[in-house]
Amino acid sequence: MSLILELTGFAFTLCGWVIIGATLSNSYWKVSSIHGSVITTSTLYENLWHSCAEDSIGVSNCRKFDTLLALPAYIQVCRALMITSLTLGVCGTLLTLLGLKSTLLGPSSQSTKTKIAMTGGVIFILGGLSSMVAVSWYAARITAQFFDSFYGGTKYELGYALYLGWAGSLLSIFGGGFLTCSAYNQQDRDQYDYSASERRIYTKPSEIVTSAKDYV
């Protein structure tokens, strides 16, 4: 059961990491709303790197954000969080591969592999939380501007990239949790086996003495 939980968690974390990477490169983080808009012949959409306009025949023109310092603070933080999430995903993948019981990579000691796998699971959880915060913060800004009656700019709705980001974050968090639980259960089992072997070692001399007395 522990091996199945470990492999399931690793598969979840890999899928989550790939989806988070697809979210970062996706252009549809927010899409212009037709609600209350007088311009319906073009669609505006943005992500963390550029803004685009698509006309009625499907031709898109994109413009990259010119400078980093002129961007709103939440976009800069979301960029940093998403890149941090992907970096943690790489580190978590390498550590988990070394700590999996089903692989011959890494140390031969089972207890060491268990600790490495647990560390990889924790890193995946942190990566999932980083992307979750970035996507949720971006979505909160879109929602706040949409329902603000005094906001004079273009109002946007949530793009499907945000839903991908939420899905990838949840997969990464759940997968990391599975890895951590699997490693924790394995660690408890190892400690129980070690304690049982110690009890057997310490009870053998007394058993010998008892049997000797019975013989006499």
TrEMBL record:
Single Gene Ontology MF annotation: structural molecule activity
Sections of the chain in a coiled coil: none
Pfam family name, one: PMP22_Claudin
Matching InterPro entries: Claudin, Claudin_CS, PMP22/EMP/MP20/Claudin
Record keywords: Cell junction, Cell membrane, Membrane, Tight junction, Transmembrane, Transmembrane helix
Gene3D superfamilies (alphabetical): 1.20.140.150
Membrane topology annotation: Multi-pass membrane protein
Principal subcellular localisation of the protein: other
GO CC annotation: bicellular tight junction; plasma membrane
Superkingdom of the source species: Eukaryota
UniProt subcellular location: Cell junction, Tight junction; Cell membrane
Regions crossing the membrane: 7-29, 73-100, 121-140, 160-181
Family named by the database record: Belongs to the claudin family.
Protein's name in the database: Claudin
The species this protein was found in: Phrynocephalus forsythii
Top-level taxonomy: Eukaryota, Metazoa, Chordata, Craniata, Vertebrata
